[in-house]
Each structure stands twice: as structure tokens, then as C-alpha cells.
Design a protein that fits this description.
The protein is α/β, with parallel strands linked by helices and 341 residues long. It has ten helices and 13 strands. The structure holds coenzyme A.
Length: 341
């Protein structure tokens, strides 16, 4: 990275956006044939009707490269060079325990020796990565940053678990950020990030890390899968997203009713509606694509943004808010730029 020591106020500005989901679709009906569940249960409790899953052998970086390619192409089509000197990949399903997934993604995207690292904040990962990349740009550490949320949750779910399999899908979403001015359309505004590690056990893959390995014993197979206490998570998700969103609204000087689009983490339609209600954002202004993609964890917000982008108009006020394992949460504000994707 080459430092830029200019004293002008800088902001990170959204310059490109792209999403990718793998082609294989799994509908609720298909799940009902092999799990003890129904389309009615899944769609009424979650709002999800289908999700995409990675093909055998397709890893998180493969999805990340597709989304990254689209974000770079979108940037080029909107007049920003498709370059980045920083690549951040938000994921909790990395290709390997080490090295990070981001360096491989940067190399495959032809981004040379860009600084590249992963961020693991589960479903809040994209907002954490966006905040980190935005801070790098405003501090003059990076000129352009590619921020990707990418997940293959299908690789960590117990295929026989009806409480998790219907909820999650695979996918990736990416944005290219460039250095710009705080008053231009597309500028990222305020951020709020938080965590509560006392509640780590609510969303966890118990085995595979140093805690389990330090015992010297092989892990029971059930401990290698994703586990979630859904009902408790539901309540924390609503409260934390609403609280965090209010913090950035106050800092930005916007009220809930003034928000044009709420781009919330696509966990569950009932959660999103409850957050919108608490913030007094009209429900039809809460972007939802979870019916078609499910919960794609760190990919959820950029995928939802890419999906809804054609409905946004330049200058629209966007509120992003996410919640996930950790527990973690985060929110951001931005104005929508004149962006074709
Ligand atoms: N099909 C049919 N029944 C199911 C089922 C399924 N796929 N999954 C669970 N059930 C059953 C449960 O076993 C339970 O049965 P019981 O009452 O006999 O014990 C019953 O449905 C109710 O389960 P519960 O977990 O209390 O349901 P819920 O209304 O809370 O909905 C979630 C479950 C997971 C959809 C909901 O809690 C949720 O969305 N939580 C948040 C999850 C989330 O968003 N996580 C990601 C955050 S980053």
C-alpha cells in the first residue's frame, strides 16, 4: 500500500457492486422430501422459499472471485479503474484454516500484491469489513478497496439438521470503494460496530479450532457442524440491529422515516420486519431477497444491495445493519451513487 498524505477530508465512496450465487437451487419442497419439515413451516417462520448451494468442489474463494469480478466490472462501467490496493474478504467459511482466503482471491482477480486479509465476524462480517476498508481509505492507507462477503455455509451444516439447513444459502457479494469526498453521493457515512462474546455459544461450530484440538482428541462429528439457538438469537438479532442502526442514524442526523432503504442482514423476514418497525422505516422500504437466497451470512448485505440496486435512485439514503455470531453487530449509512451494475 502506498500512503496518501493529502490533508483534504476523505471518505470511502461506493464505486462498484456485484453479487453472485451458485446456479444450483434447493427449494423448500426439495428439503421437505428429505428432512422432517414442510414448505409451509419454512416459509411462514423465515420467509425463505429457496436458496442456492455451491457445487461439489466449489469453495468460498470461487464465489468471492465471481462477485469480485462483477464489482470490478461495475466500477469500470461507471468510470472507476477496476483496481484495488486492499482486498478484504469477510467469511467464516474460509477455503482453509490458513492462509486467509483474501490473498488467493486478490491474486485470481489480477490485483497483484494488494494488501489482503480475511475478517471473521459471521453474519456481521461484511459491515465489519466495510468499516475496516473505509477506515483504511480515509486514513490514506489505501486508495481503492475491494470488500467481499462470501460464504459456503452448506459446507458446515449438518445435512440432517432441519433447524439450520433450511435457513442458510451460499453466495458472495462485493463492493469496490474508492477515495472521495464526504459530501458526494456514494460516500459511506457513519459506522457502529459491537460485540458480546459472553453469548458466543448461541452461534458456534464447536470443533476444528485450537480449543478442541488442544484436547488431543478427535472431535465428535456433531461438534464439527454449525449450531445455533434460534429462538434466543432471534431476540438478540432484533434488539442489536435496531439499537446499532439507531446509533448510526443519530450520528448521521437522519430519522428512521427519512431512510429510503433499509438493507438489513437477510436472516429472517420476521426479524427484518421487526427491525424496520422499531426504526419506523416503512416495511416496503426494507430490502428483502432472502426468499430467493436464504441467509448467506457475510454475503447477505452486498447480495441484497446488488439485488435491489435497480430500485435505488442517486441520493437515496441507505441504512445497512447486520447481526451475527460472536455475538457481533454493525451498521452503516450511505447515500446511493449514480451506479449501474
Ligand atoms: N421444520 C419443522 N419444524 C421445525 C423446523 C423445521 N425446519 N425447525 C424447527 N422446528 C420445530 C422445533 O423443533 C420446535 O418444535 P417443538 O416446539 O416441538 O420443540 C418448533 O419448530 C419451534 O422451534 P423454534 O426454534 O422455537 O421456532 P422459531 O419460531 O423460533 O423459528 C427459527 C426458528 C430458527 C426460524 C427462528 O428462531 C430464527 O429465525 N431465529 C434466528 C435465526 C437467525 O436468523 N440466525 C442467524 C442470525 S445471524
Amino acid at each position: 500500500m502506498r500512503p496518501n498524505l493529502s490533508a483534504e477530508p476523505r471518505a470511502a465512496v461506493l464505486a462498484g457492486l456485484g453479487g453472485y450465487v451458485p446456479p444450483t437451487v434447493v427449494t423448500n419442497e426439495m428439503l421437505a422430501q428429505r428432512l422432517n419439515t414442510t414448505d409451509e413451516w419454512i416459509s411462514s417462520r423465515t420467509g425463505i422459499r429457496e436458496r442456492h448451494v455451491a457445487a461439489p468442489g466449489q469453495a468460498t474463494s470461487d464465489l468471492a472471485v465471481e462477485a469480485g469480478t462483477r464489482a470490478l466490472k461495475s466500477a469500470a462501467g461507471n468510470g472507476t479503474p477496476p483496481e484495488a490496493d486492499l482486498v478484504v474478504v469477510a467469511t467464516t467459511t474460509p477455503d482453509h484454516p490458513l492462509p486467509g482466503t483474501a490473498p488467493a482471491v486478490a491474486a485470481r482477480l489480477g490485483l497483484g500484491n494488494a494488501a489482503a486479509f480475511d475478517i471473521a465476524a459471521v453474519c456481521s462480517g461484511f459491515v465489519y469489513a466495510l468499516a475496516t476498508a473505509s477506515a483504511a481509505i480515509t486514513a490514506g492507507l489505501a486508495r481503492q478497496a475491494l470488500v467481499i462477503g462470501a460464504e459456503t455455509f452448506s459446507t458446515i451444516l449438518d445435512p440432517n439438521d432441519r433447524t439450520t439447513v433450511p435457513i442458510f444459502g451460499d453466495g458472495a457479494g462485493a463492493v469496490l470503494l474508492r477515495a472521495g469526498r464526504p459530501d458526494e453521493a456514494g460516500a459511506l457515512g457513519r459506522f457502529d460496530l459491537g460485540s458480546d462474546g459472553d453469548l458466543a455459544e448461541l452461534i458456534i461450530v464447536p470443533a476444528g479450532g485450537s480449543r478442541q484440538r488442544s484436547t488431543g482428541q478427535p472431535a465428535p462429528v456433531e461438534d464439527t457442524y454449525f449450531a445455533m439457538q434460534g429462538r434466543a438469537v432471534f431476540v438478540h438479532a432484533v434488539n442489536r440491529m435496531a439499537q446499532s442502526a439507531r446509533t448510526v442514524l443519530d450520528a448521521t442526523g437522519w430519522t428512521g422515516p427519512e431512510v429510503d432503504w433499509l438493507v438489513g442482514h437477510q436472516a429472517n423476514a420476521r426479524i427484518l420486519r421487526a427491525v424496520a418497525d422499531q426504526l419506523e422505516v416503512p416495511t416496503d422500504r426494507a430490502v428483502m431477497n432472502l426468499d430467493r437466497v436464504g441467509n448467506t451470512s457475510a454475503a447477505s448485505i452486498p447480495l441484497a444491495m446488488a439485488d435491489a440496486a435497480e430500485r435505488f435512485t442517486p441520493g437515496d439514503r441507505l441504512l445497512l445493519t447486520a447481526f451475527g455470531g460472536g455475538l457481533t453487530w454493525g451498521s452503516a449509512t450511505l447515500t446511493w451513487p449514480n451506479l449501474e451494475i
